Amino acid sequence: MEAGAQMTEARSPQPTVGGFTLWRVFWRSLFLQAAWNPKGMQNLGFAYALYPALAELYPEPERLQEATERHLCCFNTHPYAAAAILGGAIYHEERIARGEEPPEAVNLFKGSLMGPLAALGDGFFWFSLRPAAGAFAALMSLLVGLWGPVVYLAGYNAVHLALRARFFVAGHRLGDEVVSAIAASRLPFFGERLRGLAAASAGAVAGLASLSFPRAHGAWAVLGAWGLFAAAYVLLAKGASPYALAYGAAALALFLGLVF
Amino acid sequence: MTPSLSLLAALVAGLLAVERKAFLQAMFSRPLVAGTLLGLALGRPLEGLGLGGALELFFLGAVNIGASLPDNDLFTTSGAVCCAGGLASSAPLPVEATLAVSLLLALPVAKLGRSVDRLNEHLNGWAAVHAQRRGKVRARLRYNLFGLWLPFMATGAMALGGWLVGAFALPPLFAEGPPALPRGLAVVWSAFLMVAAATALRSIRTLRAGAYAAAAAAVAAGAQALRTFAF
User: Fold this and answer.
1) Which of A27, B80, B100, B160 is the most exposed place for a label (fewest CB within 10 A)?
2) What DSSP string runs through A111-143?
3) Global confidence as pTM
4) ipTM of the predicted structure?
5) Is residue A124 part of a domain?
6) Residue A185 resides in a domain
7) How many domains does chain A have?
8) Is the pLDDT assigned to residue B228 strictly greater than 80?
């Protein structure tokens, strides 16, 4: 290790990853889950994303091989939050290349962050932002038609891409301190508000859809729609399958539609 | 509708399948957006939007966490929208009836899509082991892109299959079915929207979801009723 560090120092006193390479790593990080597999999970995707940075830091083939190998161990986290770990991994690899820390430091960093960031990312992106954007856009599609999907993509990705880029930059600049930067973004606080928006949007869709029943049956059709909505909600809470409910409701509706 | 449009839709579906997990995940593959894009490719954007909106709510809680896999919403969306596109161009039915029958046929294929996703993971595992045997590290890392192919091919095939069913298998059935069938299917479509909204609400993890939803539902229904009957 020391011999390797001396070699690197002889070549360049401050090996760092350049701006263009950082862009390449960020671009390749978008393929993080392309080879998701049960054994290594995102390991191949992580090493694939990091490779341009490693190639710049370690021009010697043996050291490059060694550095890439250490990123092929099992790795899994939220795909967006992985940007923070990827940035942090570059920070650590730069220090390793300068001989300022041992090679094990980067895997300790990855191992300690992937669990908490997975929980944070799942809670905010998968359980809050995505349902909010989806339900709100479904409501918008009833009101403004084809602009609904545009609202979805614009709203979701304004947050998603901004946070993904911010995580990556913060990880590279701050290393281990990236945790405090992510904590300062108050994602759980905003997540709770987004879940409220999602619930309100789903309710509003139900309100509008209840009026879409054939008007020939008047108020009874609207009351029936609300009864169906309430029954479906209660049965789902009791563990009923959404598919069974969908087909059960379809059979009932078809019968009523054909008879009345 | 020409078969070339169905091939275009199959290509779009395949690309969306790559975006769903392997690349970017910017939600182009979510049912609302994917349904609209497929509808646009088939020249039937409103059918795509309608099916996409309903399926978006139905699959709102479908999340891929760790090793757990959700049902494949894009499989259902591709099959349903392409089936609706094929049917709409071959049989003169009310839009709601077209949407309902396409949806009822395509809903279970989400389970099949999940099996394809699981198969893809195992193939990726095989590729990772194979990559380990390669000497040069750069060649090994190229295996990362191996996982793009199966979702692309399988979802494209599903879109094409849906179109074939809608364009050729369903129209004779409607021609021989009872005349009231389209009217009954229109009620099925409205009923599915209510079940989808309930499924969406149930999947949202917040304590006051019911209160928010009830308030918003009352406001939306009241405003719509006022607009319909007062003006």
Assistant:
1) A27
2) HHHHHHHHHHHIIIIIIIIHHHHHHHHHHHHHH
3) 0.94
4) 0.95
5) no
6) no
7) 2
8) no
